[in-house]
Each structure stands twice: as structure tokens, then as C-alpha cells.
Amino acid sequence: MLAFKEMVRALLLFWDWAGLFYFALVNGLYLWMAWRALKEIQLRKRLRRLYWSMRTARGCGEIPVSIICPAYNEGKNIVQSVQSLLGINLPNLEVVVVNDGSTDGTLDELVRAFELYPSKCLYEPVVRIKPVRAIYASQRHQNLVVVDKENGGKAD
What we know:
Order of helices and strands: HEHEHEEE
CATH topology of the largest domain: Spore Coat Polysaccharide Biosynthesis Protein SpsA, Chain A
Number of helices: 3
Largest sheet: 5 strands, mixed
Number of strands: 5
Number of domains: 2
Distance between the termini: 99 Å
CATH class of the largest domain: Alpha Beta
Strand content: 15-25%
CATH superfamily of the largest domain: Spore Coat Polysaccharide Biosynthesis Protein SpsA, Chain A
Oligomer: single chain
Strand order of the largest sheet: 1-2-5-4-3
């Protein structure tokens, strides 16, 4: 009976140590994987910074971008939409809002919110469109242009 108890005790002690070794090995492996992942994240951040610094140093980040925002009876939310577009962080961004014959005061909202004034900008239509009433520029945002024209439908 004593030998049986000793054998059970030795077996339990073996499984205790085996379990402890197993969990230490698994946790060590997880710790090593987490450390490698952090090193990879740091490397990718450095490479991304290097890539963008080289790209802007060569002038590739200076490509002009124009966003054309059609606005037909958008008086309720046009100001928020244009503010969101102006918040895009690009070096040479131009936002062109086309008020396509709105009847709900969309142009009035834009004039009031962005301090628009009639611009003496000349344009030459390349395709046939409805007549342009006026072109406005903003006193607060030099990259904002508003074109007020008659409603020409979807194809205009």
C-alpha cells in the first residue's frame, strides 16, 4: 500500500512539473511572438516614415487634387459636407462646389458660411452645359470655389 501511495505521489509530482513546464513553454512562446510582433510594428513604422519623407522630398506628394462636389438642393447639409472636404489634409487640394440650380437656398448657405464673393474668374466651356450664373471664391479658404449655374440635369 505504501508503494502504491509513493507511486501515485511520484506520478502526481511528475504531472505537476510537466504541466508547469508546458505552461512555461507556451507562455514563453507567446512572449517571444509578442516581442517579434512589436519589433515588426516598429520596423514598419520606420519604413512608412522613410517612404513618405522620400516621397515628399522628391515632390511626388505635391500632385494637385480637385474635388468636385455637386450640390442640388443640399441646403441643410452642404456646409458640413464642404467643411469635411476642406478638412482633407492634402497639400494642393482644391474643392469645387457646383450649385446646380438649387431652389432651397444652398448658395445662400455657402455664401454665409464661407464668406464667398463673386470672382472674376474666366471659364471656357469645353462641353455644352447650361449657363453659369457666377463663380464665387472664398475669403476664408483660398482652395474653395463655388460655381453657380442653371440646373442641367444629371448629364450636365
